[in-house]
Amino acid sequence: MCREMAARSIPLLNQLVAKGSSVWNPTYGQEFLNQVLTGATQLRQAQHGWEHISKAAQRLKIGPGKIIEAIVDHKITRVANRIGWEGFSAIHVCHDDVIAALRPDPPKAKSIEEFANTFGINQPAHLKRMIEDRFVQSTILRNLIT
Predict the structure, then answer these.
(1) How many CA atoms lie within 13 A of 92 on its CB side?
(2) Which range among 105-109, 123-127, 133-137 shows the weakest confidence by mean pLDDT?
(3) β-strand 50-52 against 91-94: which pairing, if any?
(4) Helices H, strands E: what count in the chain?
(5) What three-state secondary structure class fits 81?
(6) How far apart are CA 115 and CA 27, in angstroms?
(7) Distance between CA atoms of residues 45 and 84, nearest Å
């Protein structure tokens, strides 16, 4: 995916990886970082809302490559350069921008508790017991956010 992104987004990335090899040329890698960090906010220390790309990726359960791709595609515009840090570790992003650009939409289904409250059932545990005993039909969905 990173090579596809390189081919369509930043011409310099085409030079990063030699043909048929996964070895990166450090000079081209530094030029790529310079392009990503051009115009970035300077941070003396990580402030509230700013976090490293890997931490943002971990919180959203996605790969850091997706965040880098969103930065390159200008979907994430608030990027910061942490003063005193070098290379990839210096790149920080605003978590709110990452969420807005990459977080999947929440499922439209209701939880057992929300459904129970809709019908005035004060104790959702009773509805849960009815579902477990198969008196009430339900569908189990995986929440993509959690």
Answers:
(1) 20
(2) 105-109
(3) antiparallel
(4) 8, 4
(5) strand
(6) 57
(7) 9
